[in-house]
Amino acid sequence: MTQATVLLLLKIFDGAMFAIEHAPAMMAKWRGHLGLIRTLINEQRDPTDAEWQTVDATAQDQTNALRAVVDADAEA
Amino acid sequence: MKKLVFFAVAFLTGCGIGLTQAEKDALTPEQQIFKLANEINIAFAPAVAYAQQPLCKEGEAIRCHDKKVVKIFLDLREEANAALKTARANPDTAAISVLTGITRRLLGELQGELLKVKSQGARYDSSNRFAFT
Fold first, then answer.
1. Residues A2 and A39 in one domain
2. Residue B130 DSSP one-character state
3. pTM value?
4. How many separate domains does chain B show?
């Protein structure tokens, strides 16, 4: 193993340690698009049934919409 | 200078590894499944919008969908639903790993199809924007 490889691995390790140390603050900032997840982390709880229902309803709506289009195309 | 860039890239790679690990540690299995379910829903929104455009007729050049692509979107969505259902029935670490792998693959395939669709000039509207909405 060359000196450069050792230095490279050390630097990767250094970066990983830095990220782990600062991760909570960084993740909180970067999770803007998933605000609900940030709320769950801040409040240290699992999603409620109502929150799951919202996500499930969106998934079901998307599935139904795609299926309706596929069925309509098959008939056309 | 070359050395500096080399070490910066290594450091950032390490940051990525560290963040991924820290996130795994920070979330409970149910939170992780919930996060993936949200990511899947967000990723599929443009696919649904694309599917709901009118069917392309011969000679029509804009705002139309391709039957085969919509069928692929539906298959991916149903596969994601099944994977989420399995993981939620047994939310342990192994199930989360499997679900994460499946989700990444599905979202990769979905993005690939969306990119293909976008690359087809016929799917651009008069303002030269992709007609998802």
1. yes
2. B
3. 0.69
4. 1
* Of the partner residues B16, B37, B51, the one whose CB lies closest to the CB of residue A66: B51
Report yes or no on B76 lying in a domain: yes
**Residue among A16, A40, A51 minimizing CB distance to B18:** A16
Q: What is the pLDDT of residues B9-61, one digit of tens each?
A: 877 887 777 777 766 666 788 888 988 898 899 889 888 888 887 776 665 55
* Whole-angstrom distance, CA of residue B53 vs CA of residue B65: 6
Closest CB to A62 among B17, B44, B67: B44
> In which domain, by residue range, is A67 found?
48-76
Q: What is the span of the domain harbouring residue B48?
A: 28-123
Enumerate residue ranges in chain A where pLDDT < 50.
32-33
Which of A75, A71, A60, A69 lies closest to B65, judged by CA?
A69
CA distance A65 to chain B (A): 7
Q: Are residues A17 and A39 in the same domain?
A: yes
* Structure ipTM: 0.73
A vs B: CB pairs below 8 A:
132
Number of domains observed in the structure of chain A: 2
- A37, A2: one domain: yes
Residues B72, B44: contact at Cβ < 8 Å? no
Per the CB < 8 A criterion, the answer to whether B13 and B71 are in contact is no
Asked whether the beta carbons of residue B7 and residue A7 sit closer than 8 angstroms, the reply is yes
> Is B55 close to A51, i.e. CB distance below 8 A?
no
